[in-house]
Amino acid sequence: MDTPPFHLRLPASLDSVSELLDELEAYAEAADLAPGIAARLALVAEEIAANVAMHAKGASFFELRVTPGPAALVIAIEDDGPEYDPLARAAPDTAASIEDREMGGLGVHLVRELTRDARYARADGVNRLSCALPLGG
What we know:
Helix content is 34%, strand content 28%. It has three helices and five strands. With 137 residues, the protein is α+β, with helices and mostly antiparallel strands. It has a five-stranded antiparallel beta sheet, covered by helices on one side. It has one domain (6-134): Heat Shock Protein 90. The two termini are 15 Å apart.
């Protein structure tokens, strides 16, 4: 697969999440990504970017990079909001009834389920979440 990389930096807002999804759709089409891969890429990017836009008070941007590899797309998203490691949050109890569950956390759960090697780091005032989206079944 000879897929080009993707890079986009936008203001940390919900309007920017919509713009990101439009740009990712165009990227997936131009890169000839399989529909299932494109859908998972969009879902992972949307979940992470929306979390920044809605919860990272004071963040001025989020930046998404997609770097193709032989077996996966490496996804990295950065923001300049307050330090927050979404991976440190406990996985939601998906077996519990909706009434008994805590609100939130399903987006990060989806990211964990759809990707591999999710990692968080904070350096130079920037949060960085990276993961690998497998290209195979």
